[in-house]
Design goal:
24% strand, single chain
């Protein structure tokens, strides 16, 4: 079965070697059709950290990789680089396309660069980005599971994370849901969860899910959550439009990632009104 592996907030420079090795083993077992890196790939955006991250991704042997920068992937202390070439080091490792798209018979994955050189941690989405993503979603085939990827979340579950929500999210969620988005993947807060955006946003007219990832391999774990990644699988056609969302946690005892939670997510009809 085709699957998507979401790896977020690896923060190379703070990675745990044993967890990196365990994730490589998991990727080889899963053989995902596409790997999504949803930002904060490095801790401080250094060339050495990007080199280590690129080597890790190459070892996964995935047929396709969709990556976006996070706020940690822009130089913080070198102001010249931050002002005049914020993505130079990122591009050297992951290419100059900061908003890549992956498309197959089963998937449409549209990535959005939500970082800004003038924002330290918070993310932002522009009206032009919202319109571009909506147009791409609206052109999807009925058989594709439609995924948008941002770094900063469009939804949080804790009061202390409210300030971390994506700036421009209300307009983005309304537009992307109306255009047919099934899932909006995010990272940044290192807390894994799946929640309905239809229930949380009055402007979301169809069933769309926020899928947040934890930190995949770094020591920067929060709220008692272990290192984790998400695995997404399209549902069986006879069951209607569904998606299976799995959270895989790193188990120190097993020295491996283990499947910790499985959710069956009902999706809107592909013909649902935009």
């Amino acid at each position: 079965m085709s699957c998507l592996l979401q790896i977020s907030d690896t923060h190379f420079g703070t990675e745990r070697p044993e967890v990196v090795e365990a994730l490589e083993r998991l990727a080889h077992v899963l053989s995902p059709q596409v790997v999504v890196l949803s930002g904060d790939i490095t801790q401080r955006g250094t060339r050495a950290q990007f080199s280590a991250a690129r080597a890790f991704v190459d070892r996964l042997n995935a047929p396709a990789v969709i990556a976006i920068p996070g706020n940690h992937d822009i130089p913080l202390f070198q102001l010249g680089a931050r002002l005049f070439a914020p993505y130079e080091r990122y591009a050297g490792a992951f290419g100059t396309d900061l908003e890549p798209v992956f498309e197959s018979a089963e998937w449409l994955v549209v990535a959005v660069n939500t970082t800004r050189w003038y924002r330290h941690a918070h993310g932002e989405v522009s009206s032009a980005q919202i319109e571009r993503v909506a147009a791409r979603l609206a052109a999807a085939s009925p058989d594709q599971l439609r995924v948008v990827v941002t770094h900063q979340p469009v939804m949080v579950t804790r009061q202390e994370d409210m300030q971390n929500r994506l700036h421009g999210r209300e307009a983005a969620v309304a537009s992307w849901c109306a255009a047919g988005a099934d899932l909006i993947l995010g990272g940044h807060i290192h807390l894994p969860f799946v929640r309905s955006l239809h229930d949380a946003y009055a402007g979301c007219p169809r069933t769309t899910w926020a899928v947040q990832a934890g930190t995949a391999v770094s020591s920067r774990m929060r709220a008692g959550h272990p290192n984790s990644v998400n695995v997404l699988r399209p549902g069986d056609a006879e069951d209607g439009r569904t998606c299976q969302a799995e959270r895989w946690d790193h188990s120190a005892a097993d020295k491996a990632f283990v499947c910790a939670k499985v959710l069956q997510l009902p999706l809107a009809s592909a013909a649902a009104p935009a």
